[in-house]
Amino acid sequence: MTMYPQRVLEIASGIREMKIRGAGRIARAAADALRVAALEYSGERDLVAFKKYMVSVGELLISTRPTAVSLPNAVIYVLSSLRSARSFSEARESVVEQAEKFISESEEATKRISQIGARRVKENSTILTHCHSSTAVRVITEAYKQGRVVKVYSTETRPAYQGRITFTYLSRSGVPVVQIPDSAVRYVINEVDYVIVGADTVASNGAVVNKIGTSQVALAAKEARTRVYVVAESYKFSPLTLIGELVTIEYRSPEEVVPREWLEKHPRVKVLNPVFDVTPPEYIDAIITEHGVIPPQAAVLILIEKLGWVLDTLESSEGRLDLNRIVAL
Ligand code: RUB
């Protein structure tokens, strides 16, 4: 059985238990886990053995949560550096370097999005956001600093209440923020100029997978002619959707929705807890990436340009992501 460093196991369970959450943070934590795994590798100093070990760490990380494509994309990005490594030490060094590069480029991307995104917000705007997207919070905070935001509605985001994290971050920066229950979205939507949300996965047709309830918010916004902006770094675009693969929606425990004691008292109650949903491209006005603002229908262009190479490695793995092929094993 493969032994993993303690820190790697902590990161994997942190992602699974949502102590580390949000697509961007999950991706950076995964890159960091690969870096730690490479540095603390104590097996045979052999290139093939090292590649196999790194593939198993990558698989462990990817297995933690199924929906945010930023997670496999970060793993692919870091492990692809092993393709051209000629020796064990070169391989180890390249993983460490590539992981650090991913982390700094991903932080740079959110900064760039905050600058591009803030410019799209007109003066005296009211914004509504759903869940906690660190990229959306950055865009809103930057727009506020530029004097463009008068009010932000932040939904609670049941059942895990990520809206409270959004509220805390925004109010700490002085942004006037009002927490509302998810069910109040349609009640306030006519006051709202922009809905700004993040993404866990952007599909090649421009559909956006984000926290459960996002599609309901987008539907209310469309009816009210309120603009919907999705803010997403390019590593949140899914290469497998280019070949028709569907995005897996995560279901979590009923106890996140209803307290365990209540469920025990009412054993016949059935609970469904899907934690993400799909907003169709027609409900999205623009996707703001670090490469610029695109209509959702242009998602395919970002994908082909930035992540199209992943498809070449899938030829003999029947459309599945096979990390062995990513590392050229
Ligand atoms: C978080 C969520 C966020 C996206 C984008 O879901 O849906 O909107 O991950 O976040 P969960 P970011 O809480 O279940 O992880 O912009 O921070 O990457």
**Overall 3D geometry?**
globular
What is the alpha-carbon Rg in Å? 20 Å
SSE topology string: HHHHHEHEHEHEEEHEHEEEHHH
Q: How many structural domains in the coordinates?
A: 2
Bound molecules: ribulose-1,5-diphosphate
Kindly state the percentage of residues in helix: 40-55%
Number of helices: 13
**pLDDT averaged residue by residue:** 96
The count of β-strands is 10
Helix vs. strand class: alpha/beta
| Unreliable residue runs | none
Structure description:
This protein is an alpha/beta fold and 329 residues long. It folds into 2 domains: 6-110 and 309-326, translation initiation factor eif-2b, domain 1 (Four Helix Bundle (Hemerythrin (Met), subunit A), Up-down Bundle), CATH 1.20.120.420; 112-308, Rossmann fold, CATH 3.40.50. The chain is 44% helix and 13% strand. It contains 13 helices and 10 strands. The strands form 2 sheets. It has a 7-stranded mixed sheet with strand order 3-2-1-4-7-9-10, with helices on both faces. Strands 5-6-8 form a 3-stranded antiparallel sheet, with helices on one face. Helix 7 links the parallel strand 2 and strand 3. Helix 3 packs antiparallel against helix 4 (70-79), helix 3 packs parallel to helix 5 (88-119) and helix 5 packs across helix 6. It is globular, with a radius of gyration of 20 Å. It starts with 5 loop residues before the first helix and ends with a helix. The model has no long low-confidence stretch (mean pLDDT 96). Ribulose-1,5-diphosphate binds next to helix 2, helix 6 and strand 6.
